[in-house]
């Protein structure tokens, strides 16, 4: 097993755990944490593919990962803001009760 | 037979003729204004109509004096004002008015007698609540009648003629609450309409032949040389020329209006109207319009006559007139209603006028028309005064002895009665009737009209004596106390009585002013014409006939006061003849069994046809459309609506299904997304397998 396969396995595991969390948790904050996990799994993949690519000196993968982390931070901030404002409005963070966004 | 008249052609109409149109217009405008007045404005209505007619009378007198002045200077006046009313294609329809001796005389007579009757009506209608309506109709009548008189176009004359017929209808049915009055109005309208249809045919034919309806138009009118020559050259059926046939058609109209046989039936019933109406319309003016019409179109009916000869049209006019004169006089003998006696007398006298026109020309007939207008209006107004004084009683058998109670009415009535009988020398009726008898005596075709007219004169004297002795002599047989009428009613009587005598002076054989005036010749005073043997014998005969009639009447009825229920003296003598006369020769019944029965049968046939045949067709078409509509409805509900409804249902169902997926739960969306990704990955792996 090459080192790359190990990274990828860990990243796939992290993604699967994140996805399971995002799909099964009812608490909005835990869903957000799941989403963060999935994002970071993707970041890990980016870094791993860059490190074991034919041109590791080009720094492209790392730049991509840093951008992704920055976007994830912004996304986490907005997501948490939304959750807080929903909590203020509805006094709950249970996603099953937040079902008013339907046609 | 009348000599040919030469009228001086007038190129420019005088100012009098220019404003001649005002004479009929004033009363018509007054009538329109009265129509706008409220019912209680009696004074204003009477003032408007009397004022306007006074102005018309004034203008008529001015026009008359203009014609007389022109005549005195040796030029017979005939002035016309014509204008184009409408134009279609290359044909013009011209209207216009004419001032000549004939229209001038009629203008003065109509407006003068009309004015007196208007004044009389103030008294007679004083207690009627529809006083204003009465004066509105009366003014309209006067205007329309004056329109008939001045018309220079057969079309304008016809329009006024119909307007006169309309007002006659309105005034006969003035008391429309009475069913008999309403029926009489309808009868008058329909009967005169029969004549008017023929009249209209005559007008259309004349227009088709000559292209103009103007009487006089500087040589181009339909009564002037060129048009008449064309009409004479044109043969019609039965050996008549077009002129004769058109003349006969026009005469049919005149017969309807003037109550000639066989269209006389409406006139006695017209007495249902108020008495001033009977006097003005159904004695003095409107019924004389027919006579005037024949006098107006005289050149047409006379066209083609050789010197001293006659034409087919004139012969018909004569025979109809003479028969009517005798026929109506016979009926008048056996009537008991004071106004009906006068009505039949009017029919009889109109027969004299027609006969006079047919036998002796315009002047003879017109002279009797003018004198008759005055004394018959007098008689009717007198009868109205009697009816008024006897509390609306009209049966002569329930009157009697009124000589003492109503002296003024009696005196004037007696004058009118003697004028109507033709009492010798003093009264106008003698001279005018004598002119007709003289013409009849000299008629070249037959002597029968002469004897019919003499017999009619005898009967006239007889029935008038009967009426007067019933009404004014003997003992009073009524229930309520009679009284004399107010001055507003008796003064017109006196004025009319004066003219009933005085008018005779202008038509005696010694000084035939009227005839000369109408014919445009110089009038000469010649006492010698009295002693011509023929004329003297004739005058003696007619005087004897009158005396015989008066004597017979007085002998049978004079100063007796029979009970109202008792049979008449003549009835006892000859019940059968009396019954025939009393029932007016059963003319109404004959019409009832023939014309009216035919029409009601025809109406029933038409009704049956309408219900069964046309009604069936209509019902069938309606049924077909209903069927078609039902088919459409079926298609609509089941095919069109069904398709649409199904489509909507499908869309709605699928929408519901899809809406269930979009339940607003973020995680379920995410789940679908995850499954989709898994599926996609699976497909990717599956498809990229070597």
Descriptive notes:
The complex is a heterodimer of chains A (103) and B (690). With 103 residues, chain A is mainly alpha-helical. Chain A has three helices and no strands. The radius of gyration of chain A is 17 Å and the shape is elongated. The mean pLDDT of chain A is 87. Chain B is an all-alpha fold and 690 residues long. Chain B contains 27 helices and two strands. Chain B has helices spanning 15-18, 22-36, 42-72, 101-124, 131-150, 154-172, 179-210, 225-233, 242-257, 266-269, 275-284, 286-296, 298-302, 312-333, 338-360, 362-389, 402-405, 407-421, 428-441, 448-472, 487-502, 513-519, 533-557, 569-573, 575-582, 587-661, 666-688; strands at residues 79-88, 91-99. In chain B, helix 2 (22-36) runs antiparallel to helix 3, helix 9 (242-257) runs antiparallel to helix 12 and helix 12 (286-296) runs parallel beside helix 15. The termini of chain B are far apart. Mean pLDDT of chain B is 86; it is low at 1-5.
Could you give a short account of the major beta sheet of chain B?
2 strands, antiparallel
Mean pLDDT of chain B: 86
Number of discrete helical segments of chain B: 27
Shape assignment of chain A: elongated
Gyration radius from CA atoms of chain B, angstroms: 37 Å
Identify the most extensive interface between protein chains.
A-B, 12 and 10 residues
Structural class of chain A: mainly alpha
Structural class of chain B: mainly alpha
Helix content of chain A: over 70%
Q: Helix proportion of residues of chain B, in percent?
A: over 70%
Please give the order of strands in the largest beta sheet of chain B: 1-2
Q: Tell me, what's the shape of chain B?
A: elongated
- Segments of chain B where pLDDT lies below 50 for 5+ residues? 1-5
- List low-confidence stretches of chain A: none
């Amino acid at each position: 097993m090459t080192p790359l396969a190990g990274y990828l396995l860990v990243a796939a595991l992290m993604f699967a755990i994140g996805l399971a969390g995002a799909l099964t948790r009812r608490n909005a904050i835990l869903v957000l944490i799941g989403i963060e996990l999935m994002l970071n799994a993707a970041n890990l993949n980016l870094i791993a593919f860059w490190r074991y690519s034919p041109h590791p000196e080009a720094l492209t993968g790392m730049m991509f990962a840093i951008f992704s982390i920055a976007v994830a931070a912004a996304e986490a901030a907005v997501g948490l803001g939304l959750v807080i404002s929903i909590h203020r409005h509805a006094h709950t963070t249970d996603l099953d009760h937040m079902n008013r966004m339907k046609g | 037979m009348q000599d040919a008249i030469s009228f001086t052609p007038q190129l420019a109409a005088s100012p009098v003729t220019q404003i001649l149109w005002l004479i009929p217009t004033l009363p018509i405008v007054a009538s329109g204004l009265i129509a706008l007045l409220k019912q209680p404005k009696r004074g204003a209505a009477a003032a408007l109509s009397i004022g306007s007619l006074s102005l018309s009378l004034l203008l008529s007198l001015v026009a008359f004096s203009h014609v007389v002045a022109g005549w005195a200077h040796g030029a017979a006046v005939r002035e016309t004002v014509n204008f184009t009313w409408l134009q279609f294609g290359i044909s013009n329809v011209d209207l216009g008015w004419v001032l000549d001796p004939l229209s001038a005389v009629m203008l003065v007579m109509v407006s003068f007698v009309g004015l007196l009757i208007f004044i009389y009506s103030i008294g007679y209608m004083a207690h009627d609540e529809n006083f204003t309506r009465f004066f509105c109709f009366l003014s309209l009548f006067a205007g329309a009648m004056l329109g008939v008189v001045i018309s220079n176009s057969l079309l304008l004359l016809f329009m006024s003629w119909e307007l006169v017929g309309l007002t006659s209808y309105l005034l006969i049915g003035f008391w429309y609450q009475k069913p008999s009055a309403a029926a009489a109005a309808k009868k008058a309208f329909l009967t005169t309409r029969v004549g008017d249809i023929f009249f209209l045919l005559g007008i259309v034919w004349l227009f088709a032949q000559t292209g103009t309806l103007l009487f006089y138009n500087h040589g181009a009118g339909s009564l002037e040389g060129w048009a008449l020559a064309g009409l004479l050259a044109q043969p019609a059926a039965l050996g008549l020329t077009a002129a004769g046939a058109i003349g006969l058609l026009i005469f049919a109209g005149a017969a309807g209006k003037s109550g000639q046989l066989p269209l006389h039936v409406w006139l006695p019933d017209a007495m249902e109207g108020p008495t001033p109406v009977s006097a003005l319309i159904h004695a003095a003016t409107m019924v004389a319009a027919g006579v005037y019409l024949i006098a107006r179109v005289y050149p047409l009916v006379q066209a083609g006559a050789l010197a001293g000869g006659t034409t087919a049209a004139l012969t018909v006019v004569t025979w109809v007139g003479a028969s009517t004169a005798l026929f109506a006089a016979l009926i008048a003998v056996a009537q008991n209603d004071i106004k009906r006696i006068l009505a039949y007398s009017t029919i009889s006298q109109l027969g004299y006028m027609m006969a006079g026109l047919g036998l002796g020309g315009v002047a003879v007939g017109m002279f009797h028309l003018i004198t008759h207008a005055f004394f018959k209006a007098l008689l009717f107004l007198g009868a109205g005064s009697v009816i008024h004084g006897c509390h609306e009683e009209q049966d002569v058998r329930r009157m009697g002895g009124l000589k003492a109670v109503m002296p003024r009415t009696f005196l004037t009535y007696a004058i009118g009665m003697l004028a109507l009988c033709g009492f010798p020398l003093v009264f106008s009726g003698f001279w005018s009737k004598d002119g007709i008898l003289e013409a009849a005596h000299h008629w070249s075709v037959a002597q029968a009209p002469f004897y019919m007219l003499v017999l009619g004169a005898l009967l006239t004297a007889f029935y008038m004596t009967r009426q007067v002795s019933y009404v004014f002599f003997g003992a009073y047989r009524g229930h309520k106390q009679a009284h004399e009428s107010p001055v507003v009613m008796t003064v017109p009587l006196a004025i009319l009585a004066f003219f009933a005598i005085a008018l005779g002076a202008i038509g005696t054989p010694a000084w035939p002013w009227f005839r000369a005036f109408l014919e445009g010749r110089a009038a000469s005073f010649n006492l010698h014409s009295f002693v011509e043997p023929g004329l003297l014998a004739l005058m003696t005969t007619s005087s004897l006939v009158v005396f015989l009639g008066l004597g017979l009447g007085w002998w049978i009825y004079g100063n007796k006061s029979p009970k109202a229920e008792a049979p008449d003296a003549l009835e006892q003598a000859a019940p059968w003849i009396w019954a025939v006369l009393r029932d007016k020769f059963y003319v109404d019944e004959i019409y009832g069994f023939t014309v009216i029965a035919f029409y009601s049968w025809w109406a029933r046939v038409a009704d049956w046809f309408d219900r069964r045949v046309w009604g069936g067709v209509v019902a069938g078409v309606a049924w077909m459309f209903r069927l078609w509509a039902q088919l459409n409805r079926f298609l609509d509900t089941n095919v069109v609506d069904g398709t649409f409804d199904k489509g909507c249902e499908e869309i709605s169902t699928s929408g519901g299904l899809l809406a269930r997926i979009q339940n607003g739960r973020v995680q379920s969306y995410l789940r679908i997304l995850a499954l989709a990704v898994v599926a996609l990955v699976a497909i990717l792996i599956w498809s990229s397998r070597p």
